[in-house]
Amino acid sequence: MPQLPLAHPFDDDKLREECGVYGVIGVADAANFVALGLHALQHRGQEAGGIVSHDPVTGFQSVRRFGYVRDNFTKASLMETLPGQLAIGHVRYSTAGSKGQTAIRDVQPFFGEFSMGGAALAHNGNITNALALRRELIEHGSIFQSSSDSECIIHLMARSFQKTIPERMKDALRRVEGAFSVVAMTRTKLIGVRDPLGVRPLVLGRVGEGWVLSSETCALDIIGAEFVRDVDPGEMVVISADGGVESFRPFRPASPRFCIFEHVYFSRPDSILGGRSVYETRRQIGVELAREAPVEADLVCPVPDSGTPAAIGFSHESGIPYGMGIIRNQYMGRTFIEPTEQIRNMGVRLKLNVNRALIAGKRVILVDDSVVRGTTSRKIKEMILDAGAREVHFRIASPPTAWPCFYGVDTPEREKLLASRMNEDEMRAHLGVDSLKFISLEGLYRAVGASEGRNAACPQYCDACFSGEYPVAPSDMIDKGFRTKAAE
Ligand code: SF4
């Protein structure tokens, strides 16, 4: 469906993405490895995916498709069209409003032809000054092909006077504000960049004689790659076909602000983030939660799957038995990323079912990762009571989500977030549960390993969706009238 180039990127019918990026250099049939990597990153984006490869004989080749990686990039006939020892890929998810309206031209990687050769680029995050940049670029003659904020990077590169593509990328990214983990490729190089705050993850791995860049370590494991290190916040790595890795620091130094919600929910529990096991962090969140918000009960149940490690930690710390009181149908998507409220409501029963034999007659503690609109939590509470539970207590493994994310995560507008309208007791009454407690921001910081807690003057993580303190001003949104906490 055609989309207006100057429409605002945060309107309901526009794109907001939570994405996964991946790249491989120095191994035969690199695109096959990229397809496997994207499959392991599918939880980061399920609407569409794309792969670009390069081979000296065939040049750049590109395939972009809607749907799951497994439904597209497993066909031999298709993968044969992506030859070469260098390839990058992207999986994406778009906002509720844009679901079903996204054009294939919005699917990454994006490609640009420059005087020194072509380059393809895949972006995870969100550019908070994209609207202003887009306006400026269009005024100066750029012709946009998509409605994605990420395309600004390609046009900024085209306007740079630098002689090499990595230098042009540095120029372009210095103009960009917000969150970005970028994986890009030229004919001979694989490039990875993280924004100065390192909001989104990006790791470097080794596979045989080749190298891998990935959003998460779980996607290294799937191809038997060895984790080497995180790409640092503000770092650009340029990897050559001969295996050489160069590191650059193109941005002004800044204190890192990694997304703390990656630890709570987005990343897979078998990934390692910043040297910490995501599973172990989530288990520790449950321990902290049990200390902060104890309650007498008979059973600790996770809301599967993302509440599971925290429920295990809660049970261990409280001594209350753990049980799978809710069973998840493994073949449904995650409710947080369902497209409309109506479908979201229906989706709960399709996705989750209560284990009546375990629940009946018990006082149940339900451990979930977050409360966003609250619609899912209400449905789950009803299902648990219908199954004969005597009491329902919610324990939430994140603080109240009261502010939208502008750094690449699909969250509703502020007024649709339950915690923006109600305090904890009002939310408890609205959900109709016997008790409701969220982990404190301090408790969450302790769980992710910040033993000294949150440094209020300069928090070590981005926690804006809980605190309302945005580490990068969402300038496009402010222009549109969004009021930050500081402005309220
Ligand atoms: S606002 Fe929340 S979800 Fe977005 S980057 Fe910050 S912590 Fe992560």
Q: Can you walk me through this structure?
A:
By secondary structure, this protein is of the alpha+beta class. The protein folds into two domains: 16-259, Glutamine Phosphoribosylpyrophosphate, subunit 1, domain 1 (4-Layer Sandwich), CATH 3.60.20; 276-487, Rossmann fold (3-Layer(aba) Sandwich), CATH 3.40.50. Helices cover 29% and strands 24% of the residues. Strands 3-2-4-1-10-9-11 form a seven-stranded antiparallel sheet. Helix 13 (375-386) links the parallel strand 20 (363-368) and strand 21 (391-396). It starts with 19 loop residues before the first strand and ends in a 9-residue tail after the last helix. Residues 1-16 and 95-100 have low confidence and may be disordered. Iron/sulfur cluster binds at residues 199, 259-261, 405, 407, 409, 462-465. Residues 19-242 form the Glutamine amidotransferase type-2 domain. Its EC number is 2.4.2.14.
